[in-house]
Fold this protein.
Amino acid sequence: MALLAFQHDKKLGVADNSARYDLPLHNSAGSGFLLLLVALMSFLAMMTMTGAFAMHGVTSMWSSGLENQATIEIPARMSDGELRDKNELSALRDKLNGFLADQSYIESYEVMSREAVADLVSPWLGDDVNTAELPLPVLISVKLEDSSADILYRIRQNIRKYADDIRLDTHESWLSDILRLAGSLQFSAVIVTLIIGATTVIAIAGAVRSRMAEFRGDIELLHLMGASSTYISSQFQRHSVILSFKGSIIGIITGALALGLFSILSPSGAESLVPALHLGLFEWIILLLIPVAACLIAHITAKITVLRTLSELPL
Amino acid sequence: MIKFEHVGLRYGVGPEVLSDVNFSLEPGSFHFLNGPSGAGKTSLMSLMYLGRKSTRGRVTMFGQSINDMPQEGLAKLRQKIGVVFQEFRLLPHLSAFDNVALPLRIIGTPEREIMSNVNELLEWVGLGDYKQSLPLTLSGGQQQRIAVARAVIARPKLLLADEPTGNLDDEMGFRLMNLFEQLNTMGTTIVIATHSQAIMEKFGHPRMMLGHGHLNIEDPKKNWLQRTMDGVF
Protein backbone atom coordinates (compact mmCIF):
# COMPACT_ATOMS: atom_id res chain seq x y z
CA MET A 1 0.00 0.00 0.00
CA ALA A 2 2.79 2.34 0.99
CA LEU A 3 4.66 1.42 -2.21
CA LEU A 4 1.55 2.16 -4.30
CA ALA A 5 1.17 5.52 -2.61
CA PHE A 6 4.83 6.27 -3.28
CA GLN A 7 4.48 5.36 -6.96
CA HIS A 8 1.42 7.59 -7.19
CA ASP A 9 3.26 10.45 -5.52
CA LYS A 10 6.12 10.09 -7.96
CA LYS A 11 3.76 10.71 -10.86
CA LEU A 12 2.30 13.87 -9.44
CA GLY A 13 3.35 16.90 -11.46
CA VAL A 14 5.15 14.79 -14.02
CA ALA A 15 4.11 14.67 -17.67
CA ASP A 16 2.93 11.22 -18.71
CA ASN A 17 5.14 11.13 -21.81
CA SER A 18 2.08 10.54 -23.95
CA ALA A 19 1.33 14.15 -24.85
CA ARG A 20 0.47 13.82 -28.51
CA TYR A 21 -0.78 17.37 -28.93
CA ASP A 22 0.59 20.80 -28.21
CA LEU A 23 -2.94 21.61 -27.07
CA PRO A 24 -4.51 19.46 -24.33
CA LEU A 25 -7.32 18.27 -26.60
CA HIS A 26 -7.20 14.70 -25.30
CA ASN A 27 -7.90 15.96 -21.76
CA SER A 28 -10.94 17.95 -22.79
CA ALA A 29 -14.27 16.97 -21.24
CA GLY A 30 -16.02 17.29 -24.61
CA SER A 31 -14.09 14.38 -26.13
CA GLY A 32 -16.35 11.76 -24.53
CA PHE A 33 -19.45 13.52 -25.82
CA LEU A 34 -18.14 13.67 -29.38
CA LEU A 35 -17.11 10.01 -29.28
CA LEU A 36 -20.59 9.00 -28.11
CA LEU A 37 -22.28 11.20 -30.68
CA VAL A 38 -20.24 9.78 -33.57
CA ALA A 39 -20.92 6.25 -32.28
CA LEU A 40 -24.67 6.95 -32.27
CA MET A 41 -24.58 8.57 -35.71
CA SER A 42 -22.60 5.65 -37.13
CA PHE A 43 -25.09 3.21 -35.61
CA LEU A 44 -28.03 5.13 -37.09
CA ALA A 45 -26.32 5.39 -40.47
CA MET A 46 -25.69 1.66 -40.46
CA MET A 47 -29.31 0.87 -39.59
CA THR A 48 -30.67 3.28 -42.19
CA MET A 49 -28.40 1.99 -44.93
CA THR A 50 -29.19 -1.61 -44.05
CA GLY A 51 -32.87 -0.72 -44.27
CA ALA A 52 -32.30 0.74 -47.72
CA PHE A 53 -30.39 -2.36 -48.83
CA ALA A 54 -33.12 -4.64 -47.44
CA MET A 55 -35.79 -2.61 -49.24
CA HIS A 56 -33.82 -2.89 -52.45
CA GLY A 57 -33.66 -6.68 -51.92
CA VAL A 58 -37.41 -6.87 -51.40
CA THR A 59 -38.24 -4.86 -54.51
CA SER A 60 -35.78 -6.93 -56.54
CA MET A 61 -37.40 -10.13 -55.29
CA TRP A 62 -40.90 -8.90 -56.05
CA SER A 63 -40.15 -7.48 -59.45
CA SER A 64 -37.93 -10.34 -60.62
CA GLY A 65 -40.45 -12.91 -59.31
CA LEU A 66 -43.24 -11.30 -61.27
CA GLU A 67 -41.36 -10.36 -64.38
CA ASN A 68 -43.10 -11.67 -67.53
CA GLN A 69 -45.67 -13.32 -65.28
CA ALA A 70 -49.42 -13.00 -65.74
CA THR A 71 -52.52 -14.67 -64.40
CA ILE A 72 -55.64 -15.45 -66.37
CA GLU A 73 -58.76 -15.58 -64.26
CA ILE A 74 -62.11 -17.09 -65.15
CA PRO A 75 -64.33 -15.57 -62.47
CA ALA A 76 -66.66 -17.86 -60.52
CA ARG A 77 -69.37 -15.20 -60.75
CA MET A 78 -70.41 -13.75 -64.07
CA SER A 79 -70.77 -10.04 -64.74
CA ASP A 80 -74.55 -10.19 -64.19
CA GLY A 81 -73.94 -11.59 -60.69
CA GLU A 82 -74.99 -15.14 -61.43
CA LEU A 83 -72.72 -17.99 -60.37
CA ARG A 84 -71.02 -19.68 -63.24
CA ASP A 85 -71.91 -23.30 -63.73
CA LYS A 86 -69.13 -25.78 -62.85
CA ASN A 87 -69.39 -27.42 -66.25
CA GLU A 88 -69.10 -24.05 -67.97
CA LEU A 89 -66.03 -23.25 -65.86
CA SER A 90 -64.47 -26.57 -66.91
CA ALA A 91 -65.30 -25.97 -70.54
CA LEU A 92 -63.81 -22.48 -70.52
CA ARG A 93 -60.72 -23.79 -68.75
CA ASP A 94 -60.25 -26.49 -71.44
CA LYS A 95 -60.67 -23.96 -74.24
CA LEU A 96 -58.11 -21.64 -72.73
CA ASN A 97 -55.83 -24.60 -72.15
CA GLY A 98 -55.98 -25.40 -75.84
CA PHE A 99 -55.48 -21.77 -76.85
CA LEU A 100 -52.45 -21.22 -74.59
CA ALA A 101 -50.78 -24.45 -75.75
CA ASP A 102 -50.70 -23.13 -79.33
CA GLN A 103 -49.13 -19.70 -78.60
CA SER A 104 -45.40 -19.38 -79.33
CA TYR A 105 -44.90 -16.35 -77.05
CA ILE A 106 -45.98 -18.30 -74.00
CA GLU A 107 -43.06 -19.99 -72.35
CA SER A 108 -45.13 -22.08 -69.97
CA TYR A 109 -48.44 -22.05 -68.15
CA GLU A 110 -50.10 -23.94 -65.36
CA VAL A 111 -53.75 -24.32 -64.59
CA MET A 112 -53.98 -24.10 -60.84
CA SER A 113 -55.91 -26.87 -59.16
CA ARG A 114 -59.01 -26.03 -57.12
CA GLU A 115 -57.07 -27.02 -53.98
CA ALA A 116 -54.26 -24.61 -54.84
CA VAL A 117 -56.75 -21.77 -55.38
CA ALA A 118 -58.47 -22.67 -52.10
CA ASP A 119 -55.09 -22.50 -50.38
CA LEU A 120 -54.58 -19.01 -51.76
CA VAL A 121 -57.82 -17.72 -50.26
CA SER A 122 -57.66 -19.70 -47.02
CA PRO A 123 -55.68 -17.01 -45.11
CA TRP A 124 -58.67 -14.65 -45.56
CA LEU A 125 -61.35 -17.24 -44.80
CA GLY A 126 -59.78 -19.20 -41.96
CA ASP A 127 -59.05 -22.91 -41.63
CA ASP A 128 -62.51 -23.98 -40.48
CA VAL A 129 -64.35 -22.94 -43.67
CA ASN A 130 -65.27 -25.76 -46.02
CA THR A 131 -64.05 -24.66 -49.45
CA ALA A 132 -65.49 -27.68 -51.27
CA GLU A 133 -68.75 -25.89 -52.06
CA LEU A 134 -67.23 -22.45 -52.33
CA PRO A 135 -67.43 -20.81 -55.78
CA LEU A 136 -63.79 -20.41 -56.71
CA PRO A 137 -62.39 -18.91 -59.90
CA VAL A 138 -60.16 -20.77 -62.28
CA LEU A 139 -56.65 -19.36 -62.26
CA ILE A 140 -54.04 -20.02 -64.91
CA SER A 141 -50.50 -18.87 -64.16
CA VAL A 142 -48.74 -17.88 -67.37
CA LYS A 143 -45.05 -17.30 -67.99
CA LEU A 144 -44.51 -15.20 -71.11
CA GLU A 145 -41.47 -15.04 -73.38
CA ASP A 146 -42.04 -11.33 -73.55
CA SER A 147 -44.58 -9.15 -71.77
CA SER A 148 -44.73 -6.37 -74.33
CA ALA A 149 -47.93 -4.39 -74.65
CA ASP A 150 -48.58 -5.89 -78.07
CA ILE A 151 -48.51 -9.48 -76.79
CA LEU A 152 -50.64 -8.65 -73.77
CA TYR A 153 -53.17 -6.97 -76.08
CA ARG A 154 -53.30 -10.06 -78.31
CA ILE A 155 -53.83 -12.37 -75.32
CA ARG A 156 -56.63 -10.14 -73.98
CA GLN A 157 -58.35 -10.05 -77.36
CA ASN A 158 -58.17 -13.83 -77.74
CA ILE A 159 -59.33 -14.84 -74.27
CA ARG A 160 -62.35 -12.50 -74.52
CA LYS A 161 -63.56 -14.54 -77.46
CA TYR A 162 -64.40 -17.27 -74.95
CA ALA A 163 -66.06 -15.03 -72.37
CA ASP A 164 -66.21 -11.28 -71.89
CA ASP A 165 -65.36 -11.38 -68.22
CA ILE A 166 -62.17 -13.46 -68.46
CA ARG A 167 -59.36 -11.27 -67.14
CA LEU A 168 -55.65 -11.07 -67.72
CA ASP A 169 -53.83 -9.75 -64.66
CA THR A 170 -50.22 -8.69 -65.21
CA HIS A 171 -49.77 -7.54 -61.56
CA GLU A 172 -48.62 -4.21 -62.91
CA SER A 173 -51.08 -2.05 -61.04
CA TRP A 174 -50.33 -3.21 -57.50
CA LEU A 175 -46.66 -3.94 -58.19
CA SER A 176 -46.04 -0.42 -59.47
CA ASP A 177 -47.68 1.01 -56.34
CA ILE A 178 -45.53 -1.14 -54.08
CA LEU A 179 -42.39 -0.36 -56.07
CA ARG A 180 -43.21 3.34 -55.83
CA LEU A 181 -43.64 2.97 -52.08
CA ALA A 182 -40.35 1.06 -51.83
CA GLY A 183 -38.64 3.74 -53.91
CA SER A 184 -39.96 6.42 -51.56
CA LEU A 185 -38.67 4.51 -48.56
CA GLN A 186 -35.25 4.13 -50.19
CA PHE A 187 -35.20 7.84 -51.00
CA SER A 188 -36.14 8.58 -47.38
CA ALA A 189 -33.24 6.39 -46.25
CA VAL A 190 -30.85 8.42 -48.41
CA ILE A 191 -32.24 11.66 -46.94
CA VAL A 192 -31.94 10.32 -43.38
CA THR A 193 -28.33 9.25 -44.09
CA LEU A 194 -27.57 12.75 -45.39
CA ILE A 195 -29.19 14.29 -42.30
CA ILE A 196 -27.04 12.01 -40.10
CA GLY A 197 -23.96 13.20 -42.01
CA ALA A 198 -25.01 16.85 -41.67
CA THR A 199 -25.67 16.40 -37.94
CA THR A 200 -22.21 14.88 -37.54
CA VAL A 201 -20.67 17.84 -39.38
CA ILE A 202 -22.53 20.33 -37.15
CA ALA A 203 -21.58 18.43 -33.97
CA ILE A 204 -17.90 18.22 -34.90
CA ALA A 205 -17.80 21.88 -35.93
CA GLY A 206 -19.45 22.86 -32.63
CA ALA A 207 -17.05 20.72 -30.61
CA VAL A 208 -14.04 22.16 -32.44
CA ARG A 209 -15.27 25.72 -31.92
CA SER A 210 -15.89 25.16 -28.22
CA ARG A 211 -12.40 23.65 -27.80
CA MET A 212 -10.90 26.58 -29.65
CA ALA A 213 -12.64 28.90 -27.21
CA GLU A 214 -11.46 26.72 -24.29
CA PHE A 215 -7.83 26.83 -25.42
CA ARG A 216 -7.83 30.28 -26.96
CA GLY A 217 -4.85 31.43 -24.86
CA ASP A 218 -2.79 28.39 -25.85
CA ILE A 219 -3.70 28.80 -29.53
CA GLU A 220 -2.67 32.45 -29.36
CA LEU A 221 0.65 31.42 -27.84
CA LEU A 222 1.27 28.89 -30.62
CA HIS A 223 0.49 31.64 -33.13
CA LEU A 224 2.96 33.97 -31.43
CA MET A 225 5.65 31.29 -31.65
CA GLY A 226 5.14 31.17 -35.40
CA ALA A 227 2.74 28.25 -35.72
CA SER A 228 0.85 28.54 -38.98
CA SER A 229 -2.91 28.12 -39.08
CA THR A 230 -2.34 24.80 -40.87
CA TYR A 231 -0.10 23.60 -38.00
CA ILE A 232 -2.79 24.45 -35.45
CA SER A 233 -5.61 22.98 -37.51
CA SER A 234 -3.65 19.74 -37.97
CA GLN A 235 -3.85 19.20 -34.20
CA PHE A 236 -7.63 19.52 -34.23
CA GLN A 237 -7.90 17.40 -37.36
CA ARG A 238 -5.86 14.56 -35.85
CA HIS A 239 -7.85 14.67 -32.62
CA SER A 240 -11.23 14.76 -34.41
CA VAL A 241 -10.26 11.93 -36.78
CA ILE A 242 -9.08 9.69 -33.91
CA LEU A 243 -12.27 10.35 -31.93
CA SER A 244 -14.48 9.81 -34.97
CA PHE A 245 -12.71 6.59 -35.87
CA LYS A 246 -13.12 5.23 -32.35
CA GLY A 247 -16.75 6.37 -32.20
CA SER A 248 -17.68 4.96 -35.60
CA ILE A 249 -16.02 1.61 -34.82
CA ILE A 250 -18.10 1.39 -31.64
CA GLY A 251 -21.17 2.40 -33.68
CA ILE A 252 -20.75 -0.18 -36.42
CA ILE A 253 -19.88 -3.00 -34.00
CA THR A 254 -23.08 -2.22 -32.07
CA GLY A 255 -24.92 -2.00 -35.38
CA ALA A 256 -23.56 -5.36 -36.55
CA LEU A 257 -24.72 -6.96 -33.28
CA ALA A 258 -28.17 -5.40 -33.69
CA LEU A 259 -28.39 -6.65 -37.29
CA GLY A 260 -27.33 -10.13 -36.19
CA LEU A 261 -30.11 -10.11 -33.61
CA PHE A 262 -32.62 -8.80 -36.15
CA SER A 263 -31.55 -11.45 -38.63
CA ILE A 264 -32.21 -14.18 -36.04
CA LEU A 265 -35.61 -12.74 -35.11
CA SER A 266 -36.82 -11.85 -38.62
CA PRO A 267 -39.10 -14.26 -40.56
CA SER A 268 -37.47 -16.49 -43.13
CA GLY A 269 -38.53 -19.09 -45.67
CA ALA A 270 -39.75 -19.15 -49.24
CA GLU A 271 -43.37 -18.37 -48.33
CA SER A 272 -42.47 -15.14 -46.56
CA LEU A 273 -43.34 -11.92 -48.37
CA VAL A 274 -40.26 -10.28 -46.87
CA PRO A 275 -36.96 -12.03 -47.57
CA ALA A 276 -34.58 -12.91 -44.72
CA LEU A 277 -32.10 -10.11 -44.00
CA HIS A 278 -29.05 -11.01 -46.01
CA LEU A 279 -26.33 -8.55 -46.93
CA GLY A 280 -23.99 -9.25 -49.81
CA LEU A 281 -20.30 -8.44 -50.00
CA PHE A 282 -20.97 -5.10 -51.69
CA GLU A 283 -23.43 -4.05 -48.98
CA TRP A 284 -20.96 -5.05 -46.22
CA ILE A 285 -18.18 -3.09 -47.90
CA ILE A 286 -20.43 -0.01 -48.00
CA LEU A 287 -21.32 -0.43 -44.31
CA LEU A 288 -17.67 -0.94 -43.35
CA LEU A 289 -16.86 2.32 -45.11
CA ILE A 290 -18.90 4.22 -42.49
CA PRO A 291 -15.78 4.76 -40.27
CA VAL A 292 -13.87 5.99 -43.32
CA ALA A 293 -16.70 8.42 -44.10
CA ALA A 294 -16.82 9.52 -40.44
CA CYS A 295 -13.06 10.17 -40.43
CA LEU A 296 -13.27 12.07 -43.69
CA ILE A 297 -16.14 14.21 -42.38
CA ALA A 298 -14.21 14.87 -39.15
CA HIS A 299 -11.01 15.75 -41.01
CA ILE A 300 -12.63 18.20 -43.44
CA THR A 301 -14.98 19.74 -40.85
CA ALA A 302 -12.21 20.29 -38.29
CA LYS A 303 -9.92 21.81 -40.89
CA ILE A 304 -12.50 24.23 -42.29
CA THR A 305 -13.75 25.19 -38.82
CA VAL A 306 -10.27 25.88 -37.41
CA LEU A 307 -9.03 27.79 -40.46
CA ARG A 308 -12.18 29.92 -40.57
CA THR A 309 -12.03 30.65 -36.84
CA LEU A 310 -8.33 31.52 -36.98
CA SER A 311 -8.88 33.80 -39.95
CA GLU A 312 -11.29 35.80 -37.77
CA LEU A 313 -8.56 36.47 -35.18
CA PRO A 314 -7.10 39.99 -35.31
CA LEU A 315 -3.55 38.73 -36.02
CA MET B 1 15.64 44.88 -38.37
CA ILE B 2 12.79 46.83 -36.72
CA LYS B 3 11.46 50.18 -37.84
CA PHE B 4 8.56 52.03 -36.24
CA GLU B 5 7.30 55.16 -38.00
CA HIS B 6 4.70 57.34 -36.28
CA VAL B 7 3.25 54.29 -34.60
CA GLY B 8 0.28 54.65 -32.29
CA LEU B 9 -1.69 52.07 -30.34
CA ARG B 10 -4.95 52.30 -28.50
CA TYR B 11 -7.19 49.61 -26.98
CA GLY B 12 -10.76 49.94 -28.17
CA VAL B 13 -11.90 53.54 -27.89
CA GLY B 14 -9.58 54.36 -24.99
CA PRO B 15 -6.70 56.87 -25.12
CA GLU B 16 -3.51 56.03 -27.01
CA VAL B 17 -1.09 54.03 -24.87
CA LEU B 18 1.60 54.62 -27.49
CA SER B 19 1.61 57.78 -29.57
CA ASP B 20 3.85 58.69 -32.45
CA VAL B 21 6.59 56.18 -31.61
CA ASN B 22 9.56 56.36 -33.98
CA PHE B 23 12.69 54.26 -33.77
CA SER B 24 14.83 51.92 -35.76
CA LEU B 25 16.90 48.99 -34.47
CA GLU B 26 19.86 47.71 -36.47
CA PRO B 27 20.45 43.96 -36.87
CA GLY B 28 22.69 42.64 -34.09
CA SER B 29 21.93 45.51 -31.72
CA PHE B 30 21.17 45.13 -28.00
CA HIS B 31 18.73 47.47 -26.26
CA PHE B 32 17.09 47.74 -22.90
CA LEU B 33 13.52 48.96 -22.79
CA ASN B 34 12.85 51.01 -19.71
CA GLY B 35 10.15 53.21 -18.33
CA PRO B 36 7.78 53.56 -15.40
CA SER B 37 4.98 51.05 -14.82
CA GLY B 38 2.08 51.66 -17.19
CA ALA B 39 4.28 53.50 -19.69
CA GLY B 40 3.41 50.97 -22.40
CA LYS B 41 6.46 48.68 -22.37
CA THR B 42 4.42 45.48 -22.69
CA SER B 43 2.25 47.09 -25.42
CA LEU B 44 5.37 48.10 -27.35
CA MET B 45 6.78 44.60 -26.93
CA SER B 46 3.50 43.08 -28.21
CA LEU B 47 3.79 45.21 -31.36
CA MET B 48 7.37 44.00 -31.84
CA TYR B 49 6.54 40.30 -31.38
CA LEU B 50 3.57 40.76 -33.76
CA GLY B 51 1.04 40.04 -31.05
CA ARG B 52 -1.14 42.93 -32.20
CA LYS B 53 -1.28 45.51 -34.96
CA SER B 54 -0.72 49.19 -34.45
CA THR B 55 -3.74 51.42 -34.78
CA ARG B 56 -1.71 53.91 -36.80
CA GLY B 57 1.71 54.35 -38.30
CA ARG B 58 3.92 51.90 -40.10
CA VAL B 59 5.80 48.93 -38.63
CA THR B 60 8.54 47.25 -40.65
CA MET B 61 10.10 44.00 -39.43
CA PHE B 62 12.94 42.20 -41.18
CA GLY B 63 12.55 44.61 -44.07
CA GLN B 64 8.87 43.84 -44.58
CA SER B 65 5.90 46.02 -43.74
CA ILE B 66 3.59 44.06 -41.48
CA ASN B 67 0.60 46.40 -41.74
CA ASP B 68 -1.11 44.49 -44.54
CA MET B 69 0.73 41.19 -44.28
CA PRO B 70 -1.42 38.02 -44.48
CA GLN B 71 -1.47 35.57 -41.54
CA GLU B 72 0.81 32.99 -43.14
CA GLY B 73 3.43 35.68 -43.78
CA LEU B 74 3.21 36.81 -40.17
CA ALA B 75 3.69 33.20 -38.99
CA LYS B 76 6.96 33.00 -40.96
CA LEU B 77 8.17 36.27 -39.41
CA ARG B 78 7.20 35.16 -35.90
CA GLN B 79 9.37 32.06 -36.32
CA LYS B 80 12.36 34.44 -36.39
CA ILE B 81 11.36 36.00 -33.07
CA GLY B 82 11.91 34.56 -29.61
CA VAL B 83 9.79 35.98 -26.80
CA VAL B 84 10.09 35.74 -23.03
CA PHE B 85 6.74 36.85 -21.65
CA GLN B 86 6.47 38.61 -18.32
CA GLU B 87 3.97 35.99 -17.11
CA PHE B 88 5.97 33.17 -18.81
CA ARG B 89 2.97 31.71 -20.68
CA LEU B 90 4.11 28.11 -20.50
CA LEU B 91 1.67 25.43 -21.61
CA PRO B 92 0.64 23.81 -18.31
CA HIS B 93 -0.11 20.34 -19.71
CA LEU B 94 3.31 20.01 -21.38
CA SER B 95 6.49 18.99 -19.58
CA ALA B 96 9.42 21.39 -19.26
CA PHE B 97 11.05 19.49 -22.14
CA ASP B 98 8.01 19.77 -24.44
CA ASN B 99 7.55 23.45 -23.63
CA VAL B 100 11.13 24.21 -24.64
CA ALA B 101 10.86 21.93 -27.70
CA LEU B 102 7.72 23.68 -28.99
CA PRO B 103 9.37 26.32 -31.25
CA LEU B 104 11.54 23.62 -32.83
CA ARG B 105 8.53 21.38 -33.47
CA ILE B 106 6.67 24.29 -35.04
CA ILE B 107 9.45 24.84 -37.58
CA GLY B 108 9.68 21.10 -38.24
CA THR B 109 13.08 20.28 -36.70
CA PRO B 110 13.84 16.52 -36.68
CA GLU B 111 13.05 14.89 -33.32
CA ARG B 112 16.62 13.63 -32.77
CA GLU B 113 17.96 17.16 -33.09
CA ILE B 114 15.25 18.44 -30.73
CA MET B 115 16.24 15.83 -28.12
CA SER B 116 19.89 16.82 -28.03
CA ASN B 117 19.36 20.60 -28.26
CA VAL B 118 16.62 20.77 -25.64
CA ASN B 119 18.41 18.46 -23.21
CA GLU B 120 21.59 20.51 -23.53
CA LEU B 121 19.81 23.81 -22.95
CA LEU B 122 17.80 22.50 -20.00
CA GLU B 123 21.03 21.29 -18.41
CA TRP B 124 22.56 24.71 -19.04
CA VAL B 125 19.74 26.58 -17.30
CA GLY B 126 19.96 24.14 -14.39
CA LEU B 127 16.76 22.22 -15.08
CA GLY B 128 18.26 18.94 -16.25
CA ASP B 129 16.49 17.08 -13.46
CA TYR B 130 13.10 18.61 -14.23
CA LYS B 131 12.65 17.70 -17.90
CA GLN B 132 9.43 15.81 -17.33
CA SER B 133 8.06 18.17 -14.69
CA LEU B 134 4.90 20.11 -15.38
CA PRO B 135 5.33 23.90 -15.12
CA LEU B 136 2.83 24.36 -12.30
CA THR B 137 4.93 22.17 -10.01
CA LEU B 138 8.01 24.38 -10.54
CA SER B 139 8.96 27.60 -8.78
CA GLY B 140 8.61 31.01 -10.45
CA GLY B 141 12.34 31.13 -11.13
CA GLN B 142 12.35 27.68 -12.69
CA GLN B 143 9.38 28.57 -14.88
CA GLN B 144 11.16 31.73 -15.97
CA ARG B 145 14.23 29.72 -16.98
CA ILE B 146 12.00 27.41 -19.06
CA ALA B 147 10.46 30.48 -20.69
CA VAL B 148 13.92 31.83 -21.51
CA ALA B 149 15.07 28.46 -22.83
CA ARG B 150 11.96 28.27 -25.04
CA ALA B 151 12.63 31.74 -26.41
CA VAL B 152 16.24 31.05 -27.39
CA ILE B 153 16.09 27.35 -28.43
CA ALA B 154 15.44 28.07 -32.11
CA ARG B 155 18.21 30.71 -32.27
CA PRO B 156 15.89 33.58 -33.18
CA LYS B 157 17.06 36.57 -35.18
CA LEU B 158 15.23 38.82 -32.72
CA LEU B 159 14.84 38.14 -29.01
CA LEU B 160 12.32 40.11 -26.99
CA ALA B 161 12.24 39.59 -23.25
CA ASP B 162 9.83 41.21 -20.83
CA GLU B 163 11.45 41.29 -17.37
CA PRO B 164 13.33 38.02 -18.00
CA THR B 165 15.25 38.18 -14.73
CA GLY B 166 12.44 39.43 -12.52
CA ASN B 167 11.96 36.17 -10.59
CA LEU B 168 15.60 35.08 -10.51
CA ASP B 169 18.34 35.50 -7.97
CA ASP B 170 21.23 37.75 -8.98
CA GLU B 171 23.50 34.89 -9.96
CA MET B 172 20.97 33.25 -12.28
CA GLY B 173 19.91 36.69 -13.56
CA PHE B 174 23.45 37.57 -14.63
CA ARG B 175 23.94 34.08 -16.02
CA LEU B 176 20.93 34.51 -18.28
CA MET B 177 22.10 37.98 -19.25
CA ASN B 178 25.39 36.40 -20.30
CA LEU B 179 23.41 33.94 -22.44
CA PHE B 180 21.68 36.90 -24.10
CA GLU B 181 25.06 38.58 -24.63
CA GLN B 182 26.36 35.39 -26.21
CA LEU B 183 23.35 35.22 -28.54
CA ASN B 184 23.89 38.89 -29.38
CA THR B 185 27.50 38.29 -30.39
CA MET B 186 26.19 35.55 -32.69
CA GLY B 187 24.01 38.12 -34.45
CA THR B 188 20.71 38.03 -32.58
CA THR B 189 19.07 41.42 -32.10
CA ILE B 190 17.94 41.76 -28.50
CA VAL B 191 15.45 43.97 -26.70
CA ILE B 192 15.01 43.46 -22.98
CA ALA B 193 12.36 45.24 -20.97
CA THR B 194 13.64 45.64 -17.44
CA HIS B 195 13.40 47.79 -14.35
CA SER B 196 16.76 46.60 -13.04
CA GLN B 197 19.20 49.50 -12.90
CA ALA B 198 21.94 47.04 -11.85
CA ILE B 199 21.59 45.02 -15.02
CA MET B 200 21.31 48.08 -17.28
CA GLU B 201 24.40 49.64 -15.72
CA LYS B 202 26.43 46.43 -15.74
CA PHE B 203 25.80 45.69 -19.40
CA GLY B 204 25.58 49.30 -20.59
CA HIS B 205 23.55 48.84 -23.74
CA PRO B 206 21.42 51.66 -25.23
CA ARG B 207 18.15 52.30 -23.46
CA MET B 208 14.79 52.81 -25.09
CA MET B 209 13.09 55.11 -22.61
CA LEU B 210 9.33 55.02 -22.74
CA GLY B 211 7.25 57.62 -20.99
CA HIS B 212 3.76 59.02 -21.59
CA GLY B 213 3.48 56.92 -24.73
CA HIS B 214 6.60 58.42 -26.34
CA LEU B 215 9.97 56.80 -26.87
CA ASN B 216 13.52 58.16 -26.68
CA ILE B 217 16.69 56.17 -27.17
CA GLU B 218 19.60 56.94 -24.87
CA ASP B 219 23.06 55.46 -25.27
CA PRO B 220 25.02 55.64 -21.99
CA LYS B 221 28.30 54.93 -23.84
CA LYS B 222 27.74 57.89 -26.18
CA ASN B 223 26.62 60.06 -23.26
CA TRP B 224 29.79 59.16 -21.35
CA LEU B 225 31.91 59.99 -24.40
CA GLN B 226 30.03 63.24 -24.86
CA ARG B 227 30.55 64.16 -21.19
CA THR B 228 34.24 63.27 -21.39
CA MET B 229 34.72 65.30 -24.59
CA ASP B 230 32.88 68.24 -23.03
CA GLY B 231 35.25 68.02 -20.01
CA VAL B 232 38.36 67.93 -22.16
CA PHE B 233 37.42 70.74 -24.50
